[in-house]
């Protein structure tokens, strides 16, 4: 859709004003052809298997790489960012092993819900002013938001592969509005990481084979959220008490010193997810899980995967008072939960008690993966 320079300037002013009114902290515009390096980088990521079990990335490779393949009519892409920066260093909670560490973004109401309605309102104003058509995306379609945000000038992709902003550090939610209107693009941001490797060194599981490259299969966020099966034994101790996601590489970024804490009211922040007790979480059945995490992104992984994560944290806690709650989950209906409970129990009770329980467990368990946990989790307690 052809737009005169004067009309485009007025439309941009309207978009900026509406974005600010809707609570967005940054906005910029780019074009569909602004990320020419993205296809090759994404193809390499998939070819190396770094996407793990996230098959949809490989399946949507072409559409994800080139925005105009997703929607040929797009002429401009408006990228909007919302700050979700914490008022503290989330890594402080790692020193409290009886508590579960939930990634900062997930302590708020699901950002898809928070942002999408507001983006649709802005998109509606664009159509009302300029006509044409629009499409709104918030991390639910094959759109590469981070490269687009960098091309639009909102920040740059740091060595941890996440977007870094000079104004907001590493704490930004991203959303996009694809429009048929022609808007003047903003200048791309340059990389300001320099020789810093704080984010790379902060990773507990060495998930970065090189700067700007992430092997998701080793990432705690992937392991605790996207991974549907048992967490590989090699990563369990490193996970510590992280029960949903991981903020270590984000929190380590020096650019965070310029960021301000996000408005808790804007994001519908939940205080009960700042430092939840493992003992309470272990008791959640499916109904209680759904009720407790209503409106939270945590709800999307389901109760069984979540309890699996909590059990890994319990096993790492060294807190023998959790053994009773862990033992109760040995009879859970989910093999995923039973397997994680075995590992946790092996680290919380005496060798003799574990061996006696394992003998019974092996005689009654029919699931091969759970039986294998009994064998692999033989007494090798890390805590005396």
Fraction of residues in H or I helices: 40-55%
CATH topology assignment of the domain at 5-86 and 103-179: NADH Oxidase
How far apart are the termini?
70 Å
Q: What's the order of the H and E elements? A: HEHHHHEEHEHEEEHHHEHHHHHHHHH
Percent of residues in β-strands: 5-15%
Report the biggest beta sheet as strand number plus sense, adding barrel if it closes.
4 strands, antiparallel
**Global mean pLDDT:** 94
- List low-confidence stretches: none
Highest CATH level, the class of the domain at 5-86 and 103-179: Alpha Beta
Question: What structural class is derived from the secondary structure elements?
Answer: alpha+beta
* Oligomer kind: single chain
Helix count, per DSSP?
19
**Judging by the overall fold, what is the CATH architecture of the domain at 5-86 and 103-179?**
3-Layer(aba) Sandwich
Tally the beta strands: 8
How are the strands of the largest sheet arranged?
Answer: 1-2-7-4
Radius of gyration, whole Å: 23 Å
Overall, the morphology is elongated
Question: What's the helix and strand layout?
Answer:
Elements: H1 5-21, E1 26-30, H2 38-47, H3 55-59, H4 61-65, H5 67-70, E2 76-83, E3 101-102, H6 111-130, E4 134-137, H7 145-152, E5 156-157, E6 163-164, E7 172-179, H8 198-202, H9 220-226, H10 233-239, E8 242-244, H11 248-251, H12 264-267, H13 278-281, H14 286-292, H15 302-317, H16 323-328, H17 335-348, H18 351-364, H19 368-376
Parallel strand pairs: 3-8
Antiparallel strand pairs: 1-2, 2-7, 4-7, 5-6
Helix pairs in contact: 1-6, 15-17, 17-19
Report on the structure:
With 384 residues, this protein is α+β, with helices and mostly antiparallel strands. Among the domains are: 5-86 and 103-179, NADH Oxidase (3-Layer(aba) Sandwich), CATH 3.40.109; 277-384, no CATH class. Helix content is 43%, strand content 9%. Strands 1-2-7-4 form a four-stranded antiparallel sheet, sandwiched between helices. Strands 3-8 form a two-stranded parallel sheet. Strand 5 (156-157) and strand 6 form a beta hairpin.
């Amino acid at each position: 859709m052809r737009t005169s320079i004067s009309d485009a300037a007025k439309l941009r002013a309207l978009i900026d004003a509406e974005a600010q009114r809707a609570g967005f902290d940054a906005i910029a515009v780019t074009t569909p052809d602004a990320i020419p390096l993205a296809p090759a980088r994404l193809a390499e990521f998939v070819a190396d298997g770094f996407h793990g079990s996230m098959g949809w990335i490989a399946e949507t490779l072409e559409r994800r790489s080139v925005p105009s393949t997703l929607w040929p009519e797009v002429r401009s892409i408006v990228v909007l960012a919302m700050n979700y920066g914490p008022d503290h260093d989330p890594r402080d909670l790692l020193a409290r092993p009886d508590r579960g560490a939930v990634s900062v973004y997930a302590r708020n109401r699901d950002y898809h819900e928070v942002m999408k309605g507001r983006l649709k309102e802005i998109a509606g104003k664009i159509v009302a002013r300029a006509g044409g058509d629009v499409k709104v995306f918030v991390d639910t379609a094959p759109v590469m938001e981070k490269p687009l945000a960098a091309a639009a000038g909102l920040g740059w992709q740091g060595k941890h592969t996440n977007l870094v902003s000079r104004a907001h550090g590493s704490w930004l939610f991203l959303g996009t509005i694809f429009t048929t209107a022609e808007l003047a693009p903003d200048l791309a941001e340059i990389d300001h990481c320099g020789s810093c490797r704080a984010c790379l060194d902060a990773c507990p599981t060495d998930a970065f084979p090189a700067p700007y490259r992430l092997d998701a299969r080793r990432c705690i966020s992937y392991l605790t959220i996207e991974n549907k099966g048992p967490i590989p034994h090699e990563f369990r101790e490193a996970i510590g008490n992280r029960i949903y996601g991981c903020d270590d590489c984000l929190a380590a970024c020096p650019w965070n010193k310029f960021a301000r804490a996000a408005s808790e009211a804007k994001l519908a922040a939940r205080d009960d997810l700042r430092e939840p007790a493992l003992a309470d979480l272990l008791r959640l059945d499916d109904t209680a899980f759904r009720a407790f995490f209503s409106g939270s992104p945590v709800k999307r992984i389901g109760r069984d995967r979540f309890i699996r994560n909590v059990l890994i944290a319990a096993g790492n806690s060294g807190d023998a008072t959790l053994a009773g709650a862990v033992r109760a989950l040995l009879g859970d209906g989910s093999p995923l939960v039973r397997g994680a409970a075995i590992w946790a129990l092996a680290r919380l009770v005496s060798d003799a008690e574990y061996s006696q329980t394992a003998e019974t467990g092996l005689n009654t368990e029919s699931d091969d993966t759970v039986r294998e946990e009994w064998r692999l989790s033989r007494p090798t307690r890390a805590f005396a």
